[in-house]
Amino acid sequence: MQRGNNRQAIFAVEADYPFFRDALVEASLKYGLAIHAYVLMTNHIHLLATPDYDDSISKVFQSVGRKYVQYFNFTYKRSGTLWEGRYRATVVDSEYSIC
Questions:
Q1: How confident is the model over 73-98, as pLDDT tens digits?
Q2: 25 contacts 67 by C-beta, under 8 angstroms
Q3: What is the share, in percent, of the chain residues with pLDDT greater than 70?
Q4: Over the range 76-90, which residues count as b (16 or more CB within 10 Å of their CB) and which as e?
Q5: DSSP secondary-structure letter at 77?
Q6: C-alpha atoms less than 13 angstroms from C-alpha of 8 in its C-beta half-sphere
Q7: Widest CA span in the chain
Q8: Is the sign of the CA dihedral 10, 13, 14, 15 positive or negative?
Q9: The pTM is what?
């Protein structure tokens, strides 16, 4: 999960979503991150993904962050950070039992 700084919007218009998605796809292919599902909300994103390497997730978020923040800041005549710190990740275990 990655959230906008101060929970501000990270997508202002519909065209922002495909730009972000395309940057995400490009980076995930380059750095080995299999994306199974994603949700792009106005002020944050969620991914369900499997990394091929230990640094896949961090490299993808770094790459997408650089590209998208540059696009967003230029498009909306702003400067500074867009994200509220580092992304948050948790392990999802595919093994489960029904009690």
A1: 999 999 988 988 777 777 777 666 55
A2: no
A3: 94
A4: eeeeeebbbeebeee
A5: T
A6: 11
A7: 54
A8: negative
A9: 0.87
